[in-house]
């Protein structure tokens, strides 16, 4: 009987709202409300819990756990003027108020989504698809004669990615948290500016006296009138930021607003979301971001050994004739990647990054939305994991690297070409948008030592890209005679302003534009040229240019190709090293999209006690053994 009850409970649990486990709530209580950068000055950094919920419009909301968002009930439920009824949104279907019991009511989950792209810095919160909702609840008074003066708690269909260093939930207040008249608080609100760019607005707010119908409401006045009336209110409690209220209606200019108290509904939030544990004291503790792990490849890469990586680091980025002013001498790492099309071959400017590795923009092998390979076959982006995807063997076999990219055989060789043996994609995996990324290629053999005029460009250290000028685009373009030749043009990076701003995207402009120009963007650093970006798209004016950041993806080149910038004085255990003969590999931490633990999984404190099994695993085991038992009984007893 106990087994049957557990089985039924497990079956019912799938597809319904999932509270935080005790371990997840414990972890939340230790990290909530604490900003990672204690020297932060931008609103983006000061409010990593600011997100938005979306119906027909965007509404400010606050992240309160890795899968739960809190906002004002007024974002979705509206009181019909002069009538005792509510509707789902303005002019929407009626709310069945009879289903609101004990200050709780289920909200249709398909009516809203969550937008995590609320800040202005796309390296902190890059474009992601809007997150679907698994469940949503209204918590507040159940009286249609008045406005829905409560909160909306939303459970997302998927958790915030484990590898995200940016998103931090705000804390939920304890029952003894009080708000006093004249107390100074702060409104943290995700909004848009006049150019429709995402911004986070922080407004000083003062608690004021007002006449409210019950103790679940309080009033506050803003330092200036904000846009809209759904403003989250934050109070700093014991050095952690705590969300204490959401505005539900305001006066004419919305400078004074009435707020629903989060403290008042603390028990309902605990009951629905499992956010129950008292906030733990202490400063911010950095997330332990797992390093990227290799996916299994059919065509494995021959990584640089440690000694090869040391040699690559010492020679990269230095032309053999640095005193020359000719592009043919100053860009010895510029090559072509050739892929077939109906008219012959497409020549794609690429960059040599070791004696056997080349990097090229992803459009060399596939492009368009939805993505297609050069023969028109759709790219199966479901195989793209952790922003990495293997290129199928049939396309690798049709891809070659053309090394002779100038008309001087003494500097480029004569008709030198190599077959590609391995290829892997790094970049955006979302099927809704273009595959902004690069492809790492390995040639079928190393460059011969007797060809000293081929020199690899350097790979940068992993870091957040910065805007800079005095950069150089090393490319292959057309001269005045329409002949393809190596080119170098001056460029500078700028802030990206497009709607889709990806985690690995940088933007630039060229001063000397050539509409046929593509290739690698480099920065002179300690006398060497360091590849910081790969051109993905530019218009005919070169004023709108999107590139893939090599600084963001740097750790993947170490992991897959062994190009880790190992210096001869480095010891094997102290530096990142992807070579065969390395003793230990240390990879920069942040990488978008690492795998998550299964929902509900709990880590043990002793490194893996097998006696501790999470709820989801128990359900799976229960269902499995129940099925086995039922099969045996059917065989033995004939039912």
Fold and architecture overview:
InterPro entries: DUF316, Peptidase_S1_PA, Peptidase_S1_PA_chymotrypsin. Pfam families: DUF316. It comes from Caenorhabditis remanei. This is Peptidase S1 domain-containing protein. Keywords: Signal. The protein is an alpha+beta fold and about 650 residues long. It folds into three domains: about 20-275, Trypsin-like serine proteases (Thrombin, subunit H, Beta Barrel); about 305-560, Thrombin, subunit H; about 605-639. Helix content is about 15%, strand content about 30%. The chain is built from ten helices and 30 strands. The strands form six sheets. Strands 6-8-9-3-2-1-7 form a seven-stranded antiparallel β-sheet, with helices on one face. A six-stranded antiparallel β-barrel has the order 10-11-12-15-14-13. α1 (about 1-15) packs across α10 (about 615-635). Residues about 1-15 and about 570-639 have low confidence and may be disordered.
Count the DSSP helices: 10
The CATH homology group name of the largest domain: Trypsin-like serine proteases
SS class: alpha+beta
The CATH class of the largest domain is Mainly Beta
**Main sheet overview:** 7 strands, antiparallel
List the uncertain runs.
1-15, 570-639
Summarize the structure.
The chain has 639 residues and is α+β, with helices and mostly antiparallel strands. Helix content is 14%, strand content 30%.
Secondary structure topology:
Blueprint: H1 2-13, H2 22-31, H3 43-46, E1 50-54, E2 58-63, E3 68-72, E4 77-79, E5 86-88, E6 104-107, E7 113-115, E8 133-139, E9 151-156, E10 184-192, E11 198-208, E12 217-222, E13 232-237, E14 240-250, E15 256-261, H4 266-273, H5 306-315, H6 327-330, E16 334-341, E17 344-352, E18 357-361, E19 366-367, E20 372-373, E21 388-390, H7 393-396, E22 400-402, H8 409-412, E23 417-427, E24 437-443, E25 471-478, E26 484-494, E27 505-510, E28 518-525, E29 528-538, E30 545-549, H9 550-561, H10 615-637
Antiparallel strand pairs: 1-2, 1-7, 2-3, 3-9, 4-5, 6-8, 8-9, 10-11, 10-13, 11-12, 12-15, 13-14, 14-15, 16-17, 16-22, 17-18, 18-24, 19-20, 21-23, 22-23, 23-24, 25-26, 25-28, 26-27, 27-30, 28-29, 29-30
Helix pairs in contact: 1-10
Signal peptide: 1-17
Pfam family, one: DUF316
Keywords: Signal
